[in-house]
Design a protein that fits this description.
By secondary structure, the chain is of the alpha/beta class. The protein has one domain: Ribonuclease H-like superfamily/Ribonuclease H (Nucleotidyltransferase, domain 5, 2-Layer Sandwich). 51% of the residues lie in helices and 18% in strands. It has a five-stranded mixed β-sheet with strand order 3-2-1-4-5. Strand 2 and strand 3 form a beta hairpin. The longest helix is centred in the last third of the chain and has 29 residues. It starts with a strand and ends in a 5-residue tail after the last helix.
């Protein structure tokens, strides 16, 4: 399975492509950050994010897209920009018929580190270890995108096996 993980943001939108399966070593295919200038209007920034995501979807042809689920913070302007970038990511994936999964930050932290309250440094260290990288991806948005892809492979792959077993037994979820 190949998954594009997206850590949405209006200024920095992290993207990471991971390949693998549950119980097998995972491999990083790509990691990058789509950056937009605060000098641009929000619509122009969203168009830049869309173009960057479309380019990654064209180049890496993922089987699924995993996006960080937005959660409430104290700064409403940050939430709005993050939600807008996440919406663009969902549209890009849906346009191609790709399955989209939303994972909460605590779910991702728990999946990669075993602790739903892990800090960014711990997540980066575990992504580095899981993917056998020489150094943690920078900035943290890039590591977070890889962590989203890892989480989806591990959790999505397990769910796919459960669904297949239920289907074989003639039951539906």
């Amino acid at each position: 399975m190949r998954v594009l993980g997206i850590d949405p943001g209006l200024t920095r939108c992290g993207t990471g492509v991971v390949e693998g399966a549950v119980g097998r070593p995972l491999r990083m295919v790509d990691v990058s950050v789509i950056r937009t200038s605060s000098d641009l209007s929000v619509p122009e920034r969203l168009v830049s994010i869309e173009a960057g995501l479309e380019a990654r979807l064209d180049e890496y042809r993922p089987d699924a897209v995993a996006i960080e689920r937005i959660f409430a913070r104290s700064d409403v302007s940050t939430i709005m920009g993050t939600a807008q970038a996440a919406g663009v990511a969902m549209v890009c994936a849906a346009r191609r018929g790709l399955p989209v999964a939303l994972h909460t930050p605590s779910e991702v932290k728990a999946a990669v580190s075993g602790n739903g309250r892990a800090d960014k440094g711990q997540v980066g260290a575990m992504v580095t270890r899981i993917l056998r990288l020489d150094a943690a991806p920078r900035p943290a948005d890039a590591a977070d995108a890889l962590a989203l892809a890892i989480t989806h492979i591990w959790r999505g792959g397990a769910q796919a096996r459960i669904d297949a077993a239920l289907a074989a037994a003639g039951k539906r979820r």
